[in-house]
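Fimbrial protein: structure, please.
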Amino acid sequence: MRYYPFLTMLFLFSISSSPSLAKDNETQVLIKGNLLTPPPCKVNDGNMIEVNFGPVAIKTIKGYDQKREINYQITCEENLNNWNMYLSIDGNKSSFDPNGLRTNINELTVKFMMGDSIIDLNKKYSVNLNNPEKIWAVLVKKENSELVPGNFTAGGTLFVEYQ
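Here you go.
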């Protein structure tokens, strides 16, 4: 009777130490990896970017004639994993143009250009950290509308991120 516990332990040991009894048409799969986060970036060292149009004659707001360059700087920690950088501008959309920022004047919006192309609000655009394109703020009035004199403001957020 003393041999039964010993034989049971021997049997269990031999089962647990033997290789898996896989069939010819199957194998085990091991999944492993390394989760990474992109390096952090800052726009203008976290300081607000102000674009001042100054006094603008209402009659000069035609097409994309009234534009001002947005001076911005991007700084990021070293990009060791060759992440792609993207830029977007987000904010409240105007009531008459989904790609224009709402201003305090209903018939006036601010659109943005990257280089010579209008960019969509809330859409990511690929940028080169070493040579970012110029971005322009452009005043656009609602078609067939009459603007009233007064101060205008608009606000948005310029995002940069690696993906």
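Notes: The chain has one domain: 41-162.
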